[in-house]
Amino acid sequence: KTPLKQAATSHSVLTELQPDCQPLTTPPKPKEILPADPWTPTSNLKMLISAASPEIRSREQRRELSNNAREVLQAKPCLQEHLSGDEYEKSQPSRKEKSLGLLCHKFLARYPDYPSPAANNYICLDEVAEELNVERRRIYDIVNVLESLHMVSRLAKNRYAWHGRHNLSKTLQALKKVGEENKYTQQIQMIKKREYEHEFDLDGERNEEMARSFGSNEHSEMSFVELPGMEFRAASVNSRKDKSLRVMSQKFVMLFLVSTPQIVSLEVAAKILIGEDQLEDLDKSKFKTKIRRLYDIANVLSSLQLIKKVHVTEERGRKPAFKWTGPEVLPYIQDTKLETTSTTCPPPVSEPIASKEQCSKNLFPSRGKQNFTRHPSLIKLVKSIENDRRKIQSAPTSPVKTSASTDQNLSAFPRQMVPAIARHQLEGQSKKANEMKLSRSALECNLSSPEVVPKPQPPGTTAPSQQPALAQPLAVCPPSHSSVSPVILPHAPSGVSYAIYLHPSQAHTVTTYSPSFMLQPLPCANVTGMKSPNAEVLNKITTEEGDNQIATDEPTKSLAAKERLTTKSETSSQRCLKRPQALQENNLIKRYRRDEESLDTSLTFFPSGYLIPLTQCAHGNKAGFSKEKAGICSLQHTTYASPIAGVIPVTASELKAVNIPKTAFHLTPMNIMLSPTSLAAAPVLSNSCLNSSNTSSAPNPSPSVLNFTLQHVGLIPAGVQVPANPVLQHVAVSSQPENVTLTSENMSLQEEKVSKNIFNFLSSLQPSVPKEPQEPQTVTENFFRTPGGPNTVSSLSANSDGTERISQGTQYIPQRKLEVSED
DNA sequence: CGTTCCCGCCACCCG
DNA sequence: CGGGTGGCGGGAACG
């Protein structure tokens, strides 16, 4: 033990502090707090307690890293001032500063999102623990969930290999598949239904039966999901019977990938995760523990930017929940597509892969959503950060030598993986995601034609070396801020939906009103931010990016690739997934049957909508984009396939009976869905579009774009604006003046109203609009709609308070309202 | 007070 | 049998 302390603090309990502080992490802490120092009654008490407690021994008083300090400063900038002498608030290491999330951030900062296989991406738990000044135990928590995502893998005891996000795509696909096989969607439905019934004190006995049919049934207790190329972990060391965290984490993720609104409440998650193991036993403590674990997992997933916390509000108050913010996951596809896509794919991404270097160097590898051009001014920051990271990595603390064998594994794997991954990223894995949609359109505006699009040159900041990156259509801002950003943000500020979806009917109106906007048919299942409890079918629906050659000339379609919904065949999913367990095959038939059965009882969703981008964008050239996605998805089955518009809850049975029109446009009286975030995003889009289109050479690095990007990427907290004269600031949600409520009855009236509303909104996009801080989004939604048939409608209303509400269906059970709000 | 979740005891399990 | 793992839940910090 080398109790070498920089600060002469008399930490009696200070156990181990590594003298050799990492070069990167600025060790010196502003002010050191002496635990024994009696300046706060609380502290005294604490001391006494700790002293009295039998386990005083390893009471570590670790200081926080500069990062934390920074965050703290941000959090309470005002408090810093010299108020009443010295003693400020509490002790430095506030609980938050020790949070797992923060720790995870620090951890992730040490490794690149896309490490080059060449580098020795080894993780020594001990070292990390020391450098981060935390108990090893905490590192396990992080590593375990990372492992569940195959971002790391265990090599030997105390040693892990870092893979970064290279495998993420595949992993998520696999998880999604397994999730589907497990019929998590149905299970979720079950639980929700049960809750609902409980409210009315309905006989809960009946439920048991249902439970049996669903959740408990086929205890497909799947264990750890492995990746094809990944399993070969040091077999020797990897015997531990993976129980909880790892598996739990995977299941948790599955829930997101499988559920349509991609929002999962802790409660539901916990119940499902418990229910799997044992038949429903409302064990209080067990539940509680599960929740606690989920928080742990959620924290690191949050750090990975895969999810973010939101709140779901029902009649019974609001419950914590999480929303998937990670990449949209494509249904697993055979390898066939590889060639097809690779040819169509813009060279940049697919090529560079050859040289991992570039990949890893690209701090903003193209990722699912958040396809925003990296603002040049960010480059600097990014670079320095990366630099730091490099230092850390090369720090003497991690001198581990690579064994030939392991090295092999490491390098070999990525090589194969990358191409596929790259392609996915390119394609944009979320065909369904609205955000994807929008971002892509934005991207297209800016990037699809590099020549046309001027490269923003930040005043004084020019990074020629980065040019290539910018030129690449794919060199867009990924959400991978986690690895980049030194700043810790509370939550990803910006939401996810950037598009406005309109029903065709409304579309007309809108177009009329403001000709400058274009309507773009868009299949957006989960975009709306609405919660669709029974989107079971949805899960099987795959949006197909389209009709390749969809025209570029037709204004209505030119903007983005046309997308279609196609049902995904179970067969495809089945056959694609290679699960270690062979039992699967045996159950295949059974599952089919089950699936069919369940289909009958569940509701179906037919999503759709329109994206309303600026016309200018159309000028651009997105031809390439729209084309390349052609035939990505192999729709070998089309049970319910058909491009459909509108979000329409329909029961399977109804579906059969009603005979859904191919163009289900009229099925939905209306379905305009505005999410607060969309409002915020829109300005950006418009701005960028304007820049690129209006003036073919608009060097103006719009600050709003920067701000938005920063916020979105998490470099700065929401609400914070980067100094720059705001040309187009976020349009406050409140820009929507009136409440809009649509019902099937008074459609025409409502319609008008809506259009008006939209018009207002669109108008508000103009530069003159005053900026306002983003507000938490609130989505109200009805659950458990009754089988209302085609008449069911969705409606949206914007409250004067700036929050929006989206509710669907007038025939839903009113009590089943649900709100999702981001903090 | 409810939510979030840190801390670290201690059971496992693997050399 | 020692040490790495990590399940687990009390209870403190936070809001």
Automatic annotation (TrEMBL):
<dbReference type="GO" id="GO:0000981">
    <property type="term" value="F:DNA-binding transcription factor activity, RNA polymerase II-specific"/>
</dbReference>
<dbReference type="InterPro" id="IPR003316">
    <property type="entry name" value="E2F_WHTH_DNA-bd_dom"/>
</dbReference>
<feature type="domain" description="E2F/DP family winged-helix DNA-binding">
    <location>
        <begin position="240"/>
        <end position="326"/>
    </location>
</feature>
<dbReference type="GO" id="GO:0002040">
    <property type="term" value="P:sprouting angiogenesis"/>
</dbReference>
<feature type="region of interest" description="Disordered">
    <location>
        <begin position="1"/>
        <end position="40"/>
    </location>
</feature>
<feature type="region of interest" description="Disordered">
    <location>
        <begin position="766"/>
        <end position="823"/>
    </location>
</feature>
<dbReference type="InterPro" id="IPR036390">
    <property type="entry name" value="WH_DNA-bd_sf"/>
</dbReference>
<dbReference type="GO" id="GO:0090575">
    <property type="term" value="C:RNA polymerase II transcription regulator complex"/>
</dbReference>
<keyword id="KW-0238">DNA-binding</keyword>
<keyword id="KW-0131">Cell cycle</keyword>
<comment type="similarity">
    <text>Belongs to the E2F/DP family.</text>
</comment>
<dbReference type="InterPro" id="IPR036388">
    <property type="entry name" value="WH-like_DNA-bd_sf"/>
</dbReference>
<feature type="region of interest" description="Disordered">
    <location>
        <begin position="448"/>
        <end position="469"/>
    </location>
</feature>
<keyword id="KW-0805">Transcription regulation</keyword>
<keyword id="KW-0804">Transcription</keyword>
<keyword id="KW-0010">Activator</keyword>
<dbReference type="Pfam" id="PF02319">
    <property type="entry name" value="WHD_E2F_TDP"/>
</dbReference>
<dbReference type="GO" id="GO:0000978">
    <property type="term" value="F:RNA polymerase II cis-regulatory region sequence-specific DNA binding"/>
</dbReference>
<keyword id="KW-0539">Nucleus</keyword>
<dbReference type="GO" id="GO:0010604">
    <property type="term" value="P:positive regulation of macromolecule metabolic process"/>
</dbReference>
<feature type="region of interest" description="Disordered">
    <location>
        <begin position="389"/>
        <end position="409"/>
    </location>
</feature>
<feature type="compositionally biased region" description="Polar residues">
    <location>
        <begin position="775"/>
        <end position="813"/>
    </location>
</feature>
<dbReference type="InterPro" id="IPR015633">
    <property type="entry name" value="E2F"/>
</dbReference>
<feature type="compositionally biased region" description="Polar residues">
    <location>
        <begin position="394"/>
        <end position="409"/>
    </location>
</feature>
<dbReference type="GO" id="GO:0045935">
    <property type="term" value="P:positive regulation of nucleobase-containing compound metabolic process"/>
</dbReference>
<keyword id="KW-0678">Repressor</keyword>
<protein>
    <recommendedName>
        <fullName>Transcription factor E2F8</fullName>
    </recommendedName>
</protein>
<feature type="domain" description="E2F/DP family winged-helix DNA-binding">
    <location>
        <begin position="95"/>
        <end position="164"/>
    </location>
</feature>
<dbReference type="GO" id="GO:0045892">
    <property type="term" value="P:negative regulation of DNA-templated transcription"/>
</dbReference>
